[in-house]
Amino acid sequence: MTHPILEARSLHVSFNGVKAADDVSIAIHDGEFLAIIGPNGSGKTTLLNICTGYIRPRSGNVLLDGHDITRLSPRAIARRGVARAFQIPQLFSAQRVIDNMMLALAGTDGLWSAVQPLETARRRDEARALLDLVGLADDADRISSTLPEGHRKLLDIAVALALKPRLLLLDEPTSGVSALERFPLMEALMAALRQRRITALFVEHDMDVVARYASRVLVWNAGNIMAEGRPDEVFSNAQVRQRVVGVA
Amino acid sequence: MPTIIAAAAVLVIALLPVAAPWLQFVLTLAIAKGFAALGVAVLLRAGLISIGHAMFFAASAYAVAFLARAGVNDLGLLLILSVLGGALVGAVAGSFLVRYRAIFFAMLNLAVSMVFYALCAKLYGVTGGTDGKPVPVPAVFGVVLGEPAFKSVLFYLSLGLMVLVGLAVQRYLNSPLGHALSAVHTNEIRLEYLGIPVWAVLLIAYVVSAALAGLGGAIAGFAIGRVVPDFAFWTASGHLVLIAVLGGIGGVPGAFIGALFLELLHSAAVTVTDSWNLIVGMALIIVIMFMPKGIYGLFARKEATGL
Ligand SMILES: Nc1ncnc2c1ncn2[C@@H]1O[C@H](COP(=O)(O)OP(=O)(O)OP(=O)(O)O)[C@@H](O)[C@H]1O
Ligand SMILES: [Mg+2]
Predict the structure, then answer these.
(1) How far apart are the first and last CA of chain B?
(2) What is the pTM of this model?
(3) In a shared domain, residues A154 and A176
(4) A2 lies in which domain range?
(5) ipTM exceeds 0.90
(6) In the structure, what pLDDT confidence band is assigned to residue B212 with cuts at 50, 70 and 90?
(7) Same structural domain for residues A52 and A175?
(8) Which of A55, A235, B151, B289 is most exposed by smallest CB count within 10 Å?
(9) Taking CB atoms and an 8 Å cut-off, how many pairs form between chains A and B?
(10) Do residues B240 and B231 make contact, with C-beta atoms less than 8 angstroms apart?
(11) Count of the separate structural domains present in chain A
(12) Where in the numbering of this chain does the ABC transporter domain appear (chain A) (predicted)?
C-alpha cells in the first residue's frame, strides 16, 4: 500500500466531557475518495477541525506526508495543499461571487502585489471555469450573501478547489443542495478531482451519494469509528444499518 | 462620468481661494484631515475602528519640527521623511495592535495615543510641552519663499497629492491585498483557510493608514506653523473617525468630501453661532440615519443600487 497522504493517530478530544474524538485513527491514501458517515454530533466535523489545525487534540497526532502537522495553523496547513469546504459555507459574503473566487486564486499567487488589481483576465477566466464546474456561472456577479443556501455551498466548494489542493476535505458537500442538483454536482466534482488528481475526504449524510461515489467508507459513532470498508460492505453490516443508515 | 465630476470638484477647490483667500487655510487643513480620515477609513474596511489615529498625525508633524531643527530645510524631503516617520510609528504600534478586534482594537488605539499625547505634553525638554514646537517655512526645491507664497504652494501641493495619493489608495483597495482587507471584516476563518496571513494583511493596512495620517499631520504642521500635543488628543482622533463615517467608508473620495464638508461647515458655523457641536451632531445623525453610505453615497448612488 502507498504511503498515506493524511494520517491521524489516536486522536482524543472532548468538549465538556463529551468525547468528540475517542482514540481515532484514520489514513487517507492517494487517489481515494473516502466518505465519513455517522449520526449528528458524532464528531465528524471535529475530525476535520483537527486535521486542518483549527482545534488541537488533547492527545494524538496528525501527519501530512509523514510530517507532523498537529500544531500547525489552518493557514500553514492550507499552504501545504489541504483545502476545506465547510458544513456551513464560509464566504466573504459582502463581496461578489467572482471576487470570492479570485481572492482564493490570489491567495496562492500574487497576494502581495498591491498595485495590480485583483481582477486580471487570467484570474477571471480561471474563476469562471471553476464556477462553471459547480454550476454557478450565472451567479458570478452577485453579492455572495444574496445567494440561496445551496448555491452558497457550491461556492464554498469552488473556493476550496481554487486553492488547487492535493487533499480536499468536504463537510457535507450536498447538504442544502437540492435533490435535483445533487448528482450533477457530484459528477462534476468527481470529474474535477480525477482530472486534477485530488484526493478527497467527505462527510456525507446522503447514503445514495456515498454508495455511488465513495471508494471507502468510515462509519462514525460517538467519537469513534465503528465500521470501515467499501460502501457495499458497510451498508450490509447490520449494526451500521441500525445505528447510522436508519438514523441519517 | 464620475471622473468628470471629480475633476470638476478638484478644479472648483483649486479656484476657491482665488475668490476668497481666507479659504486657502481652511481648505489646506481640510485636505490634511482628509488624508488622516482616509487612513482611518482604510482600517474601517476591515471593520476596525481606530480612535487613536491623531497619534500618527501628530507624530509626523513633530517629525517635521524636529527635522527642520536638525537642519533639513526642503519641503519635499521633510514631507517624505516625516511620512516615513509616521509609518514607522505605525509599524511599531500596529505590530501588536492588529492582533485585536472590535472594541479592544478601538480602545487600545485610544490608549496608545493617550500615552503618546501625555509624553508630548510632559517631555518639555524634547517636545516643548504644551507650547509645542514651531514648524518653520521650508525651501521649495531650493527656493526660499515668503510665508504667503509658501502657504499657496502648500495648498496646491496638498491638492495635487490628494489626487495622486487618492488614486494610489484606490488601487491598493482594488488589489488582492485590499480585497483581503475587506475580507477580514466578513470572514477571517476563510481567509486563514485560503492560506492568507491575516496579521500581515492588517499590518500592511495599518502602516498605510498611519502613513496617510502622517501625511495629513505634516501638511497641517506646515499650514499652522506649529505642532502642539493637542494634535494627538483623543478628540482629534474621534474627529477623524467622524469624518471617515460622514464621508462614507466606501470610497476614497469620501474621506476628503467628509473633511471638506466638516471644515467648511465649521468655519461657516462659528461665524454665525457658537453651537458648533450641536450642528455637527445633527449633521452626523442625519447622515447615519438617512445616508448609511455617507455623503459619498449621494454621489456613488449608481454603484450602490447596481448590487
Ligand atoms: N467548539 C466546540 N465547543 C464545544 N463543543 C463542541 C465544539 N465542537 C463540537 N462540539 C461538540 O462535539 C460533538 C461533535 O460535534 P461535531 O460537530 O464534530 O459533530 P458532527 O458529526 O459533525 O455532527 P453533524 O452531523 O451535526 O455535523 C457535539 O456534541 C458537539 O456539540
Ligand atoms: Mg458536522
Answers:
(1) 19
(2) 0.91
(3) no
(4) 1-81+167-180+197-248
(5) yes
(6) very high
(7) yes
(8) B289
(9) 92
(10) no
(11) 2
(12) 6-247
